[in-house]
Amino acid sequence: MGSLRLTLCAGLLGVAFLTPAAHAADGGGVAVTPSSPAPGTDVALRVSGCASSRTGTAVSAAFVAEVRLAGADGTLVGETRVRTELKAGSYDVQISCGDVSRSGALTVVEAPAQSSEASAQPTPYASPVAPVHAGGGGTARHLASAAGPGTAHAVTGLVLAGVAATAVALRRSRRGRGND
Q1: What are the residues whose beta carbons fall under 8 Å from the beta carbon of 97, sequence distance 6 or more?
Q2: Nearest 5 degrees, angle CA 120-CA 88-CA 122?
Q3: pLDDT surpasses 50 at 19
């Protein structure tokens, strides 16, 4: 689990450093990527200046959940999703890491307009809304309609049983001769 967390943090750090970011309104080392997300968009947060802590949290009404930040050397990263039902506007982001608290702002833009053909089709949910139907799938129906063993299976079974009985009888006769 530790190596998975390290890999995730390293990947997020790479994305945060290689992607242009928007700094929060206070300029205090808080970066959000993408800079102006639409509702339902995944965002990455990068917070610098948290030298006293390796973990932290970021909270905003724009996020679907509290963001857990992790990292090293004073830079923490995390990711979350912007709520799908948000209106365009500016939303406060409160960050805490150890004894350091910061605030910033996230600007949410309107979702891009879809063509009339695309808007006629339903849009998928941003996250799963029901459990996956897992299990046998169509196996139960297939087995219920399948016929049992036929004549060919019965003959094959009898032949194999005869071969096994012959092998046992030959082995016993050989053991009997060796003991005399």
Answers
A1: 47, 50, 52, 53, 55, 56, 57, 69, 76
A2: 15
A3: no
Reading the block at residue 169, the tokens are 């009888």
Residue 16 CB neighbour total at 10 angstroms: 21
Structure-block tokens of residue 158: 């009898």
CA distance 45 to 67: 9
What confidence tier does 24 reach under pLDDT thresholds 50, 70, 90?
very low
**For residue 99, which phi and psi values (nearest 5 degrees)?**
-100, 10
List, in sequence order, the alpha helices (H) in 89-147: 116-120, 139-145
What's the one-letter identity of residue 14?
A: G
In the chain, % of residues over pLDDT 90: 22
**pTM: predicted TM-score of the whole model, two decimal places:** 0.47
Sheet harboring 42-48: ordered strands across?
22-23, 30-33, 42-48, 75-81, 67-72, 55-60, 89-97, 100-108
Q: CA-to-CA distance for 77 and 16, rounded, in angstroms?
A: 8
Which residue, 50, 49, 32, is CA-closest to 41?
Answer: 32
